[in-house]
Amino acid sequence: MTGEMVRADNVHKSFGSLEVLKGIDLVVKPGEVCCVLGPSGSGKSTFLRCVNHLEKINAGRILVDGELVGYRERGGKLHELAEKDVAKQRRSIGMVFQRFNLFPHMTVLDNVMEAPCRVKRENKAEVRDRATGLLERVGLGSKMGNYPGQLSGGQQQRVAIARALAMRPKLMLFDEPTSALDPELVGEVLDTMKDLAADGMTMVVVTHEIGFAREVGDNLIFMDGGVVVEQGPPREVIANPQHERTRAFLSKVL
Ligand code: ADP
Ligand code: MG
């Protein structure tokens, strides 16, 4: 334990000639909830994807729990990790997307059990106990035998959260987890995330839900054009943004 669950130093990422991240610095301490806001195209998803090495960064470095993501340092040089070592790092980081991507042909319980059983080859009975507990925790104890198609969007997203938690991650990344939901289903997913935060999970949450950021966030990052324009305690940033770009954005989403 390093006192820093996530550390990004001067992270740059380009797609061809398009520079999407132009030097991102960020620290998330264990147990903190970091909310990331910013207009569409500002690089929020790309940054999250860099944190678990789904995208390779071009410069800078990212550490998760003190460990370089995607690379190993030897003799002052960075060497990219082998695919199996990348996969191992990724297993300790849960990710929840806008789209739930559940396996449609598997029951809710099997969806949650799949990765620990197949990827980690854990004992099936133990995984079943844990998956059952997680589904109860997200309020879906009665839906374990159902198929995803029989569930509402909000319920499916809660299954996706339980599925990520089944791998016992030390960090959870959320990329606009409520953006695809009907408005009346947003609250149940945010409540689940709030419970998770209260339980001490370290979370990075890209969201436009200002209320959630204000209530649950320990830190708020406002990104625009591939840079962190401003950051601070959510209440302060929201009530008293220091930059015109932050003000303009907040006036649109508040
Ligand atoms: P946000 O999540 O803030 O809306 P993204 O990180 O998705 O922003 O995208 C930032 C920019 O990077 C956009 O201009 C987008 O078109 C571009 N981009 C994202 N992924 C790719 C990719 N795989 N190839 C090329 N361009 C990409
Ligand atoms: Mg995005």
UniProtKB/TrEMBL annotation:
Membrane topology of the entry: Peripheral membrane protein
Entry-linked PROSITE patterns: ABC_TRANSPORTER_1, ABC_TRANSPORTER_2
E.C. number(s) listed in UniProt: 7.4.2.1
Organism superkingdom: Bacteria
Record keywords: Amino-acid transport, ATP-binding, Cell membrane, Membrane, Nucleotide-binding, Transport
GO molecular function: ATP binding; ATP hydrolysis activity; ATPase-coupled polar amino acid-transporter activity
GO cellular component terms attached to this protein's record: plasma membrane
One family name in Pfam for this protein: ABC_tran
Reaction catalyzed: a polar amino acid(out) + ATP + H2O = a polar amino acid(in) + ADP + phosphate + H(+)
Compartments (UniProt record): Cell membrane
ABC transporter domain sequence ranges: 6-250
Family of the protein in this entry: Belongs to the ABC transporter superfamily.
Name of the molecule in the record: ABC-type polar-amino-acid transporter
